[in-house]
Amino acid sequence: MSPRRLAILAVIATLVTACSGAAGRSSDSGRVALTVYAASSLKGALGAARTAYEAAVPGVALTIATDASSTLRTQIEQGAPADLFLSADQSNPKKLVDAGLTDGPAVDFAGNRLVLIVPTANRAGISTPADLARPGVKIVAAGADVPITTYAAQVVASLAALPGYPAGFAAAYDANVVSKEDNVKAVVAKLELGEGDAAIVYVTDARASSRVRPVEIPATADVPVTYAAVVVKASTQGAAARAFMAWLAGPDGQAVLATFGFLPLP
After folding, report:
1. Cα–Cα dist 115/263, whole Å
2. Neighbours of 29 (CB within 10 A)
3. What is the pTM of this model?
4. Domains of the chain, with CATH numbers?
């Protein structure tokens, strides 16, 4: 376990105690109301994490809002009342840190992998990522600023360099993109409705749907996915936000994330 991870675990008890102690001062109901903005790919996992955390720390009530990390980061820049931001990448939190809009540095808390998904019927007959370059294949993607788009572009570039992939693979992939959705959940939904033939998404999103099936990406073409969190500087619940962030990065939070397919960090 890294020294950084040990340091995070060492402060969990202190932060949770501070959070609980502050609860009585936060509202007439004696509960801290904590607003968490999170990447859409975290939606299911954070629902379970909220249940576990509120049971462990009765003085806190979590409100979770999910969307594309880039959209949420923009909302925070514009003054949205978030206390904690959980992003599907390191780039969006860094932009908030660089803008002086966070209370402290970003903390990495989870990893993920990418996978190609197709509708269960797979009418396009896609069996390998190389099929994404075939004429007529309808690929569903996300908007340019959404983290999954950046990760997918890196995967496509890596695939294009592999033996057996056609010349011009990346250009053919781009030409086959038929829609660009707001976030990764919307990408999966499009495939579930049969409105596309394939998409590159997170493994966790593929696991959460019974109406799509995975087509593995070669390990040599996969890219690391790192989720990072920051406490929003404008928050009036900084101690509570840091406590939940530490809990999520600690053993209890990691256990919840793992049940949804998220990976621990080194």
Report:
1. 14
2. 11
3. 0.89
4. 3-111+226-259 (3.40.190.10), 114-215 (3.40.190.10)
Question: How open is the CA angle 82-201-260, to the nearest 5 degrees?
Answer: 65
Q: Residue 16 and residue 206: Cα distance in Å, rounded?
A: 33
Q: If we measure between CA atoms, which residue out of 39, 14, 93, 22 comes closest to residue 237?
A: 22
* Pairing mode, strands 199-202 and 114-119: antiparallel
Cα separation values, 117 from 135, 172, 182, Å: 18, 18, 18
Give first-to-last CA distance, the chain, whole Å: 7
Paired with 2 in beta bridges are none
| DSSP secondary structure letters along 137-167 | --EEEE-TTSHHHHHHHHHHHHHHTSTTPPT
* 213 close to 203: Cβ distance less than 8 angstroms: no
Instruction: Give the mean pLDDT per block of 10 residues along the chain (266 residues).
Output: 46 41 45 96 98 96 98 98 98 98 98 98 97 98 98 98 95 98 98 97 97 96 96 97 97 98 92
Of the candidates 90, 82, 16, the residue with the CA atom closest to the CA atom of residue 246: 16
